[in-house]
Amino acid sequence: MLKQPIFSITLYNTLGRRQQPLGNSDQITMYVCGITPYDYAHLGHGRCYVTFDLLYRLLTFLGYKVTYCRNFTDIDDKLLNRADKELNDPSAYLILANKYISSFHEDMEKLACKAPDFEPRVTTHIVPIISFIEGLIAKGKAYATEVGDVYFRISAFEGYGKLSQRTKDELKAGARVAVRADKEDPLDFALWKSCDEGPGWESPWGFGRPGWHIECSAMSSEYLGETIDIHGGGMDLIFPHHENEIAQSEGLHNKPFARFWVHNAFVRVNEEKMSKSLGNFLTLRDAYTTFSPMVLRYYYLIHHYRNPLDFSPEDIESARKSYQKLCLALENIDPASEDEIRATSYPLINDIFTALCDDLNVAKAMGRIFESIKDMGPNELALLKGLLMYVLGLALEPEKKETVVITQEIEELLQARQEARDRKDWTAADQLRARLQELGYDIQDKKS
Ligand SMILES: [Zn+2]
Q: For residue 290, how many other CB atoms are within 10 A of its CB?
């Protein structure tokens, strides 16, 4: 139990579609679905992991002991195809995966996302995945086909559809599942896929590779136990991925898989989801060349995680200005310590935590901050600065003005222009100014 719960946090639970208190147990386990490392991470990934980083930081700050696990799907058709294309060799997929895992780590670090406690990879967890599938077969929840595929038996799991709130019939109508003769039910999904060649592993059902969904069930129980507190991911994962994870985990363990299902909404461009498959995505590293990662983090934070985020340069620019305003107001202030922030009864700090604990309502917290920042004294500013740094993960460093580099050529043009002005040759002076402007220098003459 929390010794002294300062604030009680409530989160919107996709399972049941309502906001609920997280409870007072001070041990929290959190599993968030990670990436398939076959390309650079994009703005949509950034939004997801900043959301769960905020939750991680907030819970930790409030005194919860959080164990955070996020996986890497480092074997997958997309990855194999990409390895074939880029390296002319599908079996070199791990070279590609390693490259994109390290770029993902760099991108996350720039966004100030703390590293999870565990980052398991599928290819190093084939043994627990196989024994998970064996357990399901033993319980009659899965079956192997003649060709060596293994499917989950939907008819043996009553709660199927409870997360996405659809009946099996609705799911059947909505899902474009290939009807295969060897499947008992079109909704049955693959736990193991046989393959004749290419990367794979020996299994009781022959050579093959795990299906996508099984890894999260197997790895979360390996690191976090059979029931976890919070399971997170993007909204696009609700069906089928998370629905299938529930079927697998509850099918095997006969206990609730996750108490809370937390899903963030998409980043959209022209009202369409930003995604790799639609080709309308902006990678984080491309984004960082135009605006700083901290501005991007701030931009994510001020838009509530459950609302779609319509990406636009104007919106980013206004976030940049507002973040800069905050940085300047807190410049030269030493942040208060974590203990000082926890101990204070200063109403603004109280209000900020109340907003954050209300399903991560950062926008409301920021509203309160901008309303009162002008009237705050140095001690209060120190408390605020600390809170924004530790809990929101903002660095709060104001943008530096660009340093002007004066080259030899510029020096000579400036000199020549000054001489022209001295002899009152305004035409020549104007021409020299135009030349300097072409080179990107704007001249402002001091009024004498
Ligand atoms: Zn997953």
A: 11
If you measure from the C-alpha of residue 183 to the centroid of ligand 1, how many angstroms do you get, rounded to a whole number?
23
What is the 282 CA–ligand 1 centroid distance (Å)?
23
Q: CB of 67 within 8 A of CB of 31? A: no
For 365, counting Cβ atoms within 10 Å of its Cβ (0-12 exposed, 13-18 middle, 19+ buried), the class is buried
DSSP E strands in 292-375: the ranges are: 309-310
Q: Which residues contact 437 (CB under 8 A, 6 or more apart)?
A: 443
d(CA 299, CA 125): 36
Q: Are 222 and 121 in contact (CB under 8 A)?
A: no
CA 10 from centroid of its chain's CA atoms: 20
Note the pTM of the prediction, 2 decimals.
0.88
* Separation of CA 58 and ligand 1 centre (Å): 23
- Ligand 1 centroid–CA 244 distance in Å is 9
- Ligand 1 centre and the CA of 194: distance in Å? 21
Count other Cβ atoms within 10 Å, centred on residue 86: 14
Mean pLDDT by 10 residues, the chain (448 residues): 66 98 93 97 97 98 96 95 92 96 98 98 98 98 97 95 90 68 90 92 97 97 98 96 98 98 92 73 92 97 97 93 96 96 94 97 97 95 98 94 72 90 91 84 67
pLDDT attached to residue 442: 73
Q: How far is the CA of 213 from the centre of ligand 1 (A)?
A: 6
Distance CA 195, CA 27 (A): 41
pLDDT score recorded for residue 63: 92
d(CA 392, ligand 1 centre) in Å: 25
- Cα of 267 from ligand 1 centre, angstroms: 19
